[in-house]
Structure formats: C-alpha cells, structure tokens
Write a structure and sequence with these properties.
- This protein has 171 residues and is of the alpha+beta class.
- The protein has one domain: Nuclear Transport Factor 2, Chain: A.
- It has five helices and five strands; from the N terminus they run H-H-H-E-H-E-E-E-E-H.
- Strands 1-5-4-3-2 form a five-stranded mixed sheet.
- Strand 2 and strand 3 form a beta hairpin.
- The longest helix is centred in the first third of the chain and has 20 residues.
- The chain is elongated, with a radius of gyration of 20 Å.
- The N and C termini lie far apart (84 Å).
C-alpha cells in the first residue's frame, strides 16, 4: 500500500466512516432492535444481549434514573425473566429515522418467583413503554427508555393485597 493510499484510507475513516455507520439501512437497524424483543425477552436468551448490544452500550431511563452498561442491562433483564418466567414483550411498533430506531412495546408477565427478598405476588405485571435505539457498526450502542416504572410496584401491591383477601376469605 502506498503512502497516499494509507493517507486516503485514514482520511476516509476520519471523515466518512461515522456517516456510513449512521446511515445503515433502516430495515437492518430495525431487525437488530427487534432481536432484543424476540430473543432476549420472548425466548429468554440473555446471551443474545452480547450480540445485539455493543460492549460500550449505555441505557438511559431505567429504574432509579441510572444509566446501565451492557452487563447491568443483562442482569436487569435476567431479574425480570426470573421474577416472571412467562414474561413477554410485544413490540407494537418499530420505525426508523436517520438516527434512531423508535420502539413502542407492551410487557406482560406473572410474578411467580422470589427475586432477592421480594416474594412472589402472583400478580400479572403489565406495562408499556417506548424507546429509541442508536446503532453503530451493526449493534445497539445507546437506548433511551420511557417507562412508568412505578406501575410495576402498583401491580405487585395489587397482587399482595389480592393474596391477603384470598387468604382471609378461605380461612
């Protein structure tokens, strides 16, 4: 390779590579984002997270207002799947613009397993949310979630109250 070729290669990388990565076809980016719903949440394959999300992934809008890295997202997904083994997320809509894949989805699962100190409530947990996924080099590098996380607590409380009333009625 000649010096000029190396210069041109480096120049292209610095000036156009990011643009090329960002303009990955919308259908490809949507398919990558959809894998999270299909493989992680519906097939309960936590290992798929490593293939879908970049190693420097950042997730915004999660409980407590924290930003999650890829391993923390994997642990959070595992917590939900462990607590609600029948959980699924139905993607209601996925669309892409030049920068993001936008998602709208619906979560449903029955809280039948103990997680940490939280006993099973047998409540059906239902909530919906939206998100934006930003992609680079064929992986999700950043997401922003909009979820009413407090609705999960209300569902759990309803399940515990129902269990108390059911216990009292059948004594």
């Amino acid at each position: 390779m000649r010096d000029n070729d190396i210069f041109m290669s480096n120049w292209f990388r610095q000036n156009y590579e990011q643009e090329f990565v960002m303009t990955q076809p919308a259908a490809v980016r949507k398919a990558i984002s959809r894998r999270d719903f299909d493989e992680v949440w519906n097939d309960h394959d936590l290992d798929a997270i490593r293939d879908i999300y970049a190693s420097d992934f950042q997730g915004h809008g999660f409980p407590g207002g924290v930003t999650l890295d890829r391993e923390q997202y994997r642990r959070l997904a595992g917590l939900f799947i462990r607590a609600c083994p029948d959980c699924t997320i139905e993607p209601l809509d996925l669309w892409a613009d030049d920068e993001f894949v936008h998602t709208q989805w619906y979560f449903e699962g029955t809280h039948t397993e103990k997680v940490g100190r939280i006993p099973p409530s047998n409540a059906t947990i239902r909530f919906d949310g939206t998100g934006r996924h930003r992609h680079e080099q064929g992986r999700v590098v950043e997401i922003w979630m909009d979820v009413a996380w407090s609705s999960i607590g209300r569902s759990l409380l309803r399940g515990y109250v129902d269990r108390v009333f059911d216990f009292e009625l059948h004594r």
